[in-house]
Design brief:
The complex is a heterodimer of chains A (295) and B (290).
Chain A lengths: L3 H31 L6 H16 L5 H29 L4 H23 L15 E3 L2 E3 L1 H23 L1 H11 L1 H6 L4 H27 L5 H16 L4 H21 L5 H15 L15
Antiparallel strand pairs in A: 1-2
Helix pairs in contact in A: 1-5, 1-8, 1-9, 1-10, 2-3, 2-4, 2-8, 2-9, 3-8, 5-6, 5-8, 6-8, 9-10, 10-11
Chain B lengths: L1 H26 L7 H18 L4 H23 L4 H21 L1 H4 L12 E2 L2 E2 L3 H24 L1 H11 L1 H6 L4 H27 L9 H14 L4 H13 L11 H22 L13
Antiparallel strand pairs in B: 1-2
Helix pairs in contact in B: 1-6, 1-9, 1-10, 1-11, 2-3, 2-4, 2-9, 3-9, 6-7, 10-11, 10-12
The chains are: A mainly alpha (295), B mainly alpha (290).
Amino acid sequence: MTMAPFVQLLINTVHSGVIFALVGVSFDLVYRTTKFFHFAHAAVFLCAAYGTLAFSSIWPQFWIAAVAGIGIGTIANVSMELSVFARMRRNRASALTLLLVSLGLYVVVQNIVSLLFGDGTRVLWTSAVARGIDLHGGYITPVQLFAATASVVLVCGTHWTLSRSKIGKALRAVSADSELAEACGLPIRRVNVAAFAISGALAGSVAILVSMDVGLNPNLGLQLLFIGVVVMIMGGVGSVWGALIAGLFLAAAQNAAVWWLSSAWQDAITFGLLWTFLLFRPQGIFGRKAPARSA
Amino acid sequence: MNYFLHVLVLISIYTILASSLNLLVGCTGMLSVAHAAFYGLGAYAGALAALHWGFGFPFDLAVACGLGAVVALIVALPSLRVHGDYFVLGTFALQMIVFNLLNNWTAVTGGAVGMGRIRNPSVFGIFIASPLRYVCLSGPFAALVVWALMKISQSSYGNVIRAIRDDEVLAETLGTDVHREKTIVFVLAAAIAAGAGSLYADYIRFIAPSNFTVQESIFLLAIVIIGGAGNFLGSVIGAAVLVALPELLRFFDVSSAAAANVRQILYGVLLVVVMIARPRGLLGEYDFRR
């Protein structure tokens, strides 16, 4: 047996791992600051990907359509925060109330997308069929290479923004203790909007990167949200490096399952990992302390 | 007339689903988005038991409930030990995995095309095929479930789980084993939902993974919330209204594919509006404020 299958496995793992990490980071940004399960994050993926699809039929240059799509995702996320969540939070709504509203918003958006574009899989990006780039016996297509590179850049960029920039520091302060942050004079509302905006832009980017490779259907949002939730729990809430390692770890486990068992086992493996983490290390790889049992 | 009875059967099945979810969400304050997963597991378990063993309807029902309970126990073990929000995240993961499993495990479940040719049940030698006969089976089942859940919620045990809902830390301080009680409620609700799945599969005789999606879980939550969390009469009314109302769409000129989307948009909007304007719903006693 040659090394080739292992090289291919490694390439697949790194490729999907960094994408998983970006999905996890985009979900985590809202969760860490507002502490509620923003289910309609799945709708943001859809808005960006289908927005790009709609715009790409108008403009010949794909990158303009992609930028417009990311803009739509960002605007969708921010407008949900501004029009619904911010107002409800002012009325002292609980995390469960916000989640239920978010569930309703997701259902509405997904069904509008289904009505407008149909339930079938659509192609976002067509390129000439090529063998892919040869990397020591393994192959990767240009689109996949671009998606992986862009994901790494965005994950690292998010880490830099959070650790160095003013807005990032404000975001981390609100994540750690929003009441204390408010008492220190931080504009909580604006910080929350910023979290939704950055999260929306990242979610939009990753949805487009994934759709360019495998196409898109109205179920894409849920599948990505699922990955995001698993990666966030495994990596630990509020940890970008944790998400990166968790993404790679999850991708490695899934690829190994596909290789040695069959693709049907992929989800069983994902569930097993999540189950093990929840039971033995609920704070995730890099989580600082165990989450309190009660809100 | 048969069509009217058909809607009645659906209402009775959704009443079972919604009231069991209400025990979880409304009485105990545990929000789950995996109820359709248990519903689906029960439907497939019941249908497969009938197909491969054929010991009759009560046996299929028991297999369905048993599988629902076991899966719920496995899931409850880790996800109930941690933060309240993590329970929702865990149930969401479970819902996605069960759907993918039903969709991809083609050898057993038939995959995305679904499972057909499920036999109608026969109880005490009476073959139950027509909607009229089925109403006579599912109606009493629904009544029994609602009655039993009401009894539980009015009993002292009902006070215990409501105490967990209203203040988990206080309940724990007063000596309640919060983890144990939550597990019991979760397992019970899951077993009932799985039983409803078996009833549904035997009636419709064709099941596909697309019947048991996240959207279906959200639909069940919408019934509970709109009817009123913590009130079982509310769940009955919620199920009746939300199941029957979209049937009116048939009388308008909407294609059947679009009707499914319009139906979901309707209850999505309803859920958002109710949560913002009146979180305790029609008859509810709990508004998720904690």
